[in-house]
Design a protein that fits this description.
The chain is of the alpha+beta class. It has a single domain, classed as Endonuclease, Chain A. Helix content is 45%, strand content 20%. A hairpin with a 4-residue loop joins strand 2 and strand 3. It is globular. The chain starts with 8 loop residues before the first helix and ends in a 7-residue tail after the last helix.
Amino acid sequence: MRSRRHQGLVDGVVRSRARSLRALSTAAERRLWAKLRRKSLDGVRFRRQHPLHGFIVDFCCLEKRLVIEVDGESHAEDVGYDEWRTKKLQEHGFTVLRFLNDEVKRDLDAVVQAIWAQLHARNPAPPP
């Protein structure tokens, strides 16, 4: 049995890419992370640049099954991919919220309020 840390080549590549993306975060991602980190939003834990079902998502709350994506200008060119990715994550039971970099920079409080509202709108069923 492999250790949790060394689960294989693919997992290692994905983890390495996630680490790289954390280091190269946009200014908008860093601002939002400052509001989400260390359970500062109602004690809910978020992960940043987290590998999830074959994707690396910007922010993720596994407990509430919520994914938050902060999209830059490059996402305007490939809307179809983002829609497909959102659909795949929804198939796994996740809600995906998307915000533009400009939204986060211009009105961070409104973005955080939208995330808070989504967290409280969800009442996930307890595990069996």
